[in-house]
Structure formats: structure tokens, C-alpha cells
């Protein structure tokens, strides 16, 4: 669990310092005051990843010194870790220095936000990111395989645009795509097996109904990538595109046998998005043996009391939760928020913050 968070020139915060109890904290405030940015800072600190952007410059405070810093301490079951991230921008706005090495033993995070509805309604890419985010936290080598696969795919796609692409060069990129892609497909298969039963339980618990949730992993190249690439080769060369491989995978979601994106009601879709995230938390805890930190952005205010209480019941009581909300009414009616600090966020400053 995270005990301190400090940030400098991050989003709308020139400086931020927070001490957080084991239970976590609730951040209240109007729209556009900085609540989400606090949760984003935690995610960048712990996972080197922002759920809102892939662009480092977007996170640097406008009018700031041209970079940002985030530091924090987390106390695990056995040890205390201290993280520090610093990004500096070069004149052209590109990051000059990364945030140091990626810590594979970084903490575990589950991000829950209203945009999770896109997991159900949106493009396959959103669901691949969902799997990738879990994969990088529980599967050793996942992040590296993904980065290598993406590099090879990018190079192959560039080459395919050439008038006369060199075949042996294309094949050498394909070899990397086959070896790294196979690791990804195997890992994603395991991840979906891990998540499925947990998501189905959460769906039942949160909806309060006997809804049968189905998760089916669809690898775009099947389980034999080499064969699939051979079969697609002519078409790929003709159309100058890469059709086969994990970059085209999907995770099919269904409720009672029907595709959830097209047939489920909005309420069912929201519940399904929550179920996927709750399942993610359980899967991380089961594999890594410690509880994730839950970053819950503006979700509870949007839920009816029945589903809100069900989610609060399903979330592990001992896990640290960081919750943002614009609505205050529900806070005093809900169980499961004991032991959490309360902070009011206004125009990039936080009441009760530390120096
Ligand atoms: N790089 C940046 N520099 C300065 N301000 C920024 C930067 N990026 C975003 N902001 C601003 O920070 C403010 C806070 O945004 P944030 O999303 O954290 O608000 P919020 O309190 O979570 O709002 P909501 O309840 O609407 O989600 C916004 O006004 C946003 O425009």
C-alpha cells in the first residue's frame, strides 16, 4: 500500500504531498479540479503507465519547468519500497530522459473508471490493452515480448509500404513476430482462463442476477502463428498490411450467449465493465500473492445504490482504495469506506495535504 505521494509540475499540480492511511482515501471536488490527476500520478508512479495518455508532455504542467517528478513510498507485507520518477522534456517536447528502469516488482494496480464501458462497447484494441495491463503485472517477460513484437510489426509495416520490399528482411521481422507473438498468445490464453471464472462471479454478485458471462479469447492468428502468417503472406504482400498476429486479437464478451456490445443493456454493460476490473484485481492477488491498490475514478457516483454496495462488498476489505467523486451524498450511506482519509480537491490544491 502506498503511504506517501509527492508530485511536482504534474498536470494541474505545481506541488502535491499526501500521506495516505492503509485504507486509502476519498477525494471529493467539482469537475476539473485535479482528482483524476492524483490517481493518474499513482499509476505512473507504480506502473510507469498512465491510463489517460501515452504522451509524457500531456502530463507536464502547462507553464511549468518542462518536466515532472513523482515520488512515493509503499509498504508491502515484508518490505518498504521507495519509488521516484522524473521526466524531463527536451526543447522539441519529446521526453529526454525516461523514468529509469521499469520495475518488474512494482506494485499492483487496478484502475476503474467510467471509460471502462469502452471495454464492452469499444474496439478490440481496448480489450487488448486490458489484457496487456494485467499481463505486464503477472506474466514475467510479457512487457518485453510486447515491446519486441510491436517493434517488429512496425518495421514490417514500414517495409510493406516500400515499392519493392526485400523479402528476406520481411521474413526476419516475421520471425520475431512469431517467437514473441507466440509468447503473447500463450500468455493471453492463460490470462483469460484466470480472469473468466472470477469475472463471471463478479457479474452475478454486482448484478444480483443469474447472468451468464462469457469471455472468449480470439487470437487473430489462431494458436499457430507461423502457419497463419504463411497462409496470409500473399494477401499481406498484395494489400501491404499485417493482418495476422496478436495486434489483431480480440476478447469476445457475451451475456447469456449474446454479444455484450450489441445486445446487453447499458446497466449490464456497466456491470460487465466493473466485473472485468474486479476480476483483474482478484487475478493479480491470486498470482502475485498481494493485494493491488484500487484507483477508482468517479465510478461510484454513477452507480445505483444496489450496484454501488455490491461493488464495495466485492472489493477486498484489506485493499487500499483511492476513490474520487463529485457527488457527496453516497459517501455517508455506504459501508466499506471506514479507515479512509477524506481530501477536498480544489483548483490543483488539496486540503490537509502535507508539504
Ligand atoms: N498538463 C497540464 N497542465 C496543467 N493543467 C492540466 C494539464 N493537464 C490537464 N490539466 C487540467 O487539470 C485540471 C484537472 O483535471 P482532472 O482530470 O484531474 O480533474 P478532475 O477533478 O478529475 O475532474 P472530473 O471530475 O471532471 O473528472 C483540468 O482543468 C485540466 O484541464
TrEMBL record:
<keyword id="KW-0238">DNA-binding</keyword>
<comment type="similarity">
    <text>Belongs to the RecF family.</text>
</comment>
<keyword id="KW-0235">DNA replication</keyword>
<keyword id="KW-0963">Cytoplasm</keyword>
<keyword id="KW-0742">SOS response</keyword>
<keyword id="KW-0067">ATP-binding</keyword>
<comment type="function">
    <text>The RecF protein is involved in DNA metabolism; it is required for DNA replication and normal SOS inducibility. RecF binds preferentially to single-stranded, linear DNA. It also seems to bind ATP.</text>
</comment>
<dbReference type="InterPro" id="IPR018078">
    <property type="entry name" value="DNA-binding_RecF_CS"/>
</dbReference>
<keyword id="KW-0547">Nucleotide-binding</keyword>
<keyword id="KW-0234">DNA repair</keyword>
<dbReference type="InterPro" id="IPR001238">
    <property type="entry name" value="DNA-binding_RecF"/>
</dbReference>
<keyword id="KW-0227">DNA damage</keyword>
<dbReference type="InterPro" id="IPR027417">
    <property type="entry name" value="P-loop_NTPase"/>
</dbReference>
<protein>
    <recommendedName>
        <fullName>DNA replication and repair protein RecF</fullName>
    </recommendedName>
</protein>
<dbReference type="InterPro" id="IPR042174">
    <property type="entry name" value="RecF_2"/>
</dbReference>
<feature type="binding site">
    <location>
        <begin position="29"/>
        <end position="36"/>
    </location>
    <ligand>
        <name>ATP</name>
    </ligand>
</feature>
